[in-house]
Design brief:
Helices cover about 45% and strands about 15% of the residues. The protein contains 8 helices and 6 strands. It has helices at about 25-30, 35-55, 75-100, 115-125, 145-160, 170-175, 225-235, 245-250; strands at about 15-20, 60-70, 105, 135-140, 190, 210-215. Strand 3 (about 105), helix 4 and strand 4 (about 135-140) form a beta-alpha-beta unit. It binds farnesyl diphosphate.
């Protein structure tokens, strides 16, 4: 049963783009005396529920941080297990994702993923390409600093080739050279497991995002927890550097 928290909240108050740092799978497993992979497996259920609920609520964009470039330093067995779970998720959910009009994207160093994982993900991206609903982005082998350096390289190359004037470089142009160029910036960042860190995730894109940190570990993150985060977001006033009075006057004009 989903909570009543969003019952009286108009849809315009929902965040358009939610980004999530899914953390705490290992601790969740450890608390139960199990292997880390057991936590990741349960984490997949949270992914499934969260994607379903975002679709149900009509959220436009959901971006999940599933694997950072730093995660390559984990034991090979855990990494293999994670790819296995990712393949399982994509294959088993594909029919429902398609029915729901979900589109799929990946950001990160896609070429570094094992060939079989790439094949399955690319197949799902192609299959879901026409979807008009939730835009689901999964960050895999992702590093925000690498993404920023990549954008900088592209821009430098364009300037060198005389296809771009230095004076034309601004916020929007820079954003358009990032891997997230087709996504609006996240309105809400959720991080589970109580850590107060951004961990090299969407450093540029999160400039004005509201941040919601919950002590709940990712395998325990339920639609109710999502509702709490959305309700918390809707309660806050986004000022973008302006005063409260200015925001109120703009709303009333
Ligand atoms: C963080 O927990 C979680 C991860 C590094 C992996 C998240 C991946 C999944 C839930 C599965 C695949 C994803 C998708 C989108 C299908 P942790 O291991 O860092 O936990 P800890 O901090 O408690 O050790």
């Amino acid at each position: 049963m989903a909570s009543d928290l969003l019952k009286d909240l108009p849809k315009e108050k929902y965040p358009r783009h939610i980004a999530i740092i899914m953390d705490g799978n290992g601790r969740w497993a450890k608390q139960r005396g199990r292997m880390r992979l057991f936590g990741h497996r349960q984490g997949i259920s949270s992914v499934r529920e969260t994607v379903r609920e975002c679709h149900r609520l009509g959220i436009g964009y959901l971006t999940l941080y599933a694997f950072s470039t730093e995660n390559w330093n984990r034991p090979p067995r855990e990494i293999r297990g994670l790819w296995g779970l990712l393949k399982y998720y994509v294959q088993s959910e594909l029919p429902e994702l398609k029915r729901n009009g979900v589109r799929l994207r990946v950001i990160g160093d896609f070429e570094r993923l094992p060939a079989d994982v790439r094949k399955i993900i690319q197949g799902a991206i192609d299959e879901l390409a026409g979807g008009k609903g939730l835009a689901l982005t999964i960050a895999l082998s992702y590093s925000s600093r690498d993404e920023i350096v990549g954008a900088l390289r592209k821009i430098a190359r364009e300037v060198k080739e005389n296809s771009l004037d230095v004076e034309a470089i601004d916020d929007d142009l820079f954003s358009s050279r990032l891997m997230t160029s087709e996504l609006p910036d996240p309105d809400l960042l959720i991080r589970t497991s109580g850590e107060f860190r951004i961990s090299n995730f969407l450093l540029w894109q999160l400039a004005y995002s509201e941040i919601y940190i919950t002590p709940v570990l990712w395998p325990d993150f339920s639609p109710d927890e999502l509702h709490k985060a959305i309700a918390g977001y809707a309660d806050r006033e986004r000022r973008y550097g302006k005063t409260s009075d200015q925001i109120r006057n703009e709303e009333n004009s």
